[in-house]
Amino acid sequence: MKFSAFGQRASRGSGIENLMDDLGKALSGSGPAPLMLGGGNPAHIPEMEAVWNQRLHEILDDPATLRRTLAIYDPPRGNAAVLTALAGLLRTELGWEVGPENIAVTPGGQTAFHFLFNLFGGKRPDGSPARILLPLMPEYIGYANQGLEEGMFASQRPGISRTAPHRFKYHIDFSNLQVGPDIGAICISRPTNPSGNLVTDEELTRLERLAAGRDIPLIIDNAYGWPFPGIVFSEAKPLWTPHTIHVMSLSKLGLPGTRTAFVVGPPQVASAVSSMMAVTGLANGNFGQSIVGPLFASGEITRLAREIIQPYYRRKRDAALEAVAEFFPADAPYALHESEGALFLWLWLENSKKTSRELYQNLKERGVLVVPGEYFFFGDIAEDWRHRHECLRISFAMDDRDVREGLRIIGSEIAGAF
Ligand SMILES: Cc1ncc(COP(=O)(O)O)c(C=O)c1O
Known about the structure:
This protein is globular. The protein has helices at 5-11, 15-28, 46-60, 63-71, 80-94, 109-120, 201-214, 267-281, 287-298, 300-327, 356-365, 400-415; strands spanning 35-36, 103-106, 122-123, 129-134, 153-155, 159-164, 167-171, 183-189, 218-221, 244-249, 261-264, 334-337, 344-349, 368-369, 371-372, 391-395. Helix 6 (109-120) packs across helix 8. The N and C termini lie far apart (51 Å). It is an alpha/beta fold. The protein has two domains: 5-47 and 304-413, Alpha-Beta Complex (Aspartate Aminotransferase, domain 1); 74-299, Aspartate Aminotransferase, domain 2 (3-Layer(aba) Sandwich). The strands form three sheets. Strands 2, 3, 4, 5, 8, 9, 10 and 11 form an eight-stranded mixed β-sheet that branches. Strands 6-7-12-13-16-15 form a six-stranded mixed β-sheet. The chain is 40% helix and 16% strand.
């Protein structure tokens, strides 16, 4: 049997797949369970688990909703009442002029990006190539293997500024940003996985102007942003214009198992996504939509984001930063990216004697799992750019004691890295 070119590309595995396999094997091995600071799973927040529990009981106790959830295909675009409720929420919370015609449901953000990247990237009808521009590396690894065609991503290095002792921040390097005719869309995660960077309002507006000038979309990945889940620690205004497309997922609210996300964009785009959904999957799963529908309609979802989720992660982020201050050698030239959102600390060991891969291996042997940063640099980024081998992603979403102990061990490893 011979696979197609796409089949070969999609099935040959990826760096991150190998790594996840490695992490999985380490977790199932004998000996004490490693300290898992590597994954992207959201935390299990008791107050949110109580909300899911209550919603599931309400669904069970309402035969019509139960039947709709279990035994009826939704239209491919999603449940009409949920689309209306989300549009209402975006109008009242953010002042966006949107209706259900602007929204389409997908099985998680990952699938939304698969649809959007292949809608705007790849070969155009006239045969010319279109690429997706990722204006600031490092960027979410899950985008990397999504193209139906090879070489779909254009990307570029960030500007780096030192913001405080042991702190830095990435910026979009507009002086080198090329939005040529080969670019079909610009995409950015805000806040960014892995760095915790929050592209500023000004940077976002400049990107939008560039996109509008070329009549291409600016895709904003809202996996951690407002209005939900709201894992944002600095000021950031959401931006809505005829050239923006937002992807909003239920995963980091605490519902990754429901595989539910919403694409919010121009009607033409929402309609295309819903057609792609029909072709690839007929309809979406109903569970996530059934759980959150009433929370969208009442606005309760944004209260939960503001009063439960955001403070929960802020506290965990602060505890992680305190552990870093306590355990990392103050005289070592380590630097953390400003933690402005998402679930991770992004550690840069400039001029370290060991690569991030070597540090990852050493830490794994000492029972701490992190993610070596090189996976988050892809597209046009040269392999020999030293920075891409000098960073580690460390999750602070897990149990506080594990995060603290993991950071203690990372601190002692760093002492020998310079
Ligand atoms: C930045 C970002 N975008 C998208 C996703 C995809 O999430 P999901 O498919 O669970 O919605 C993730 C998951 O970790 C992420 O971190």
